[in-house]
Amino acid sequence: MSPNALIPSHRKPRRPSASSRALRAGVTGGFLTLAVTGATVPANAAEKPVSETQEMPTITTALATSAARSADTAEQVAFNYERQALQDSAFSHAAKAAEKHKAEAVKKAKAAAKKKAEEARKAKEAAEARASRSSERSTLSAPSSSTATGSTATLVAFLKAQLGKAYVLGSTGPSSYDCSGLTQAAFSQIGIDLPRVSQDQSTQGTQVGLDNLQVGDILYWGSAGSAYHVGVYVGGGKFIGAQNSSTGIVERPLDYDMPTGAVRVL
How far is CA 222 from the centre of its chain? Predict the structure, then answer.
């Protein structure tokens, strides 16, 4: 054993080197700094990690910002696509609805035009029929020797064929008639439908004066709308009617029983 073994050394303890201090420093600024004890490290080498640790957070922030911007852009693009899809769908529905309304309008217009044409056709036929009857009446000669033609001739011929038949209240033929039943049956021979009773027959067609009578005019007794008797003017100042149960169906001159008024349905 050396005689100096127990004598404390008076040597100053060795100061740790820069590399030892770096090793003990551990993590500096969030980065692990490694150094080998006893190695000689240039001064600029010890500072280099510090420089690198200052740049890396900047790179990380830029990447995060770029990623956020990319996400926002993607979201905006998706929103734009969705909005465009909704607009396209709305335009499509609007176009279909407009097309439907257009088709319905065209259909209604065609129906209205068809109805109008049909009404015009009927009006023309009615006018032609009236003109034909007027022409027939205009061909009649003097009242004392008048001879009806066409529909008026058919009407008068039917009425004359009923002369002498019985008057029966409420009867419409063929063996007996009341006054309105006879006129109704006579006009049905030429395609004209009259109401059943005298009151209604007295308001048909056009009212005419007794001084302007034509063959086929319906004569009525009483007031228009409440007549109690009817007959038919057959020309020559005469009428035919189912008068009463005593006389039956007869032909009489107007002054036999002067009517109150007359209507023209021909």
Answer: 51
CA dist 132 → 124, 135, 138, 139 (Å): 12, 5, 10, 11
The reported pTM is 0.47
Tell me, yes or no, whether 169 and 248 share the same domain: yes
Q: Are residues 157 and 257 in the same domain?
A: yes
DSSP 28-78: ETTEE----TT----HHHHHHHHHHHHHHHHHHHHHHHHHHHHHHHHHHHH
The residue segments making up the domain with residue 160 are 142-264
Domain end (from 35, 55, 77): 77
Residue 111 lies in a domain: no
Element (H, E) at 86: helix 43-138
Give the pLDDT confidence of 33-76 residue by residue, as tens digits. Answer: 444 444 444 544 444 554 444 555 555 666 767 777 777 788 88
Determine the straight-line distance between the first and last CA of the chain, rounded to whole angstroms.
168
Host H or E run for residue 240: strand 238-244
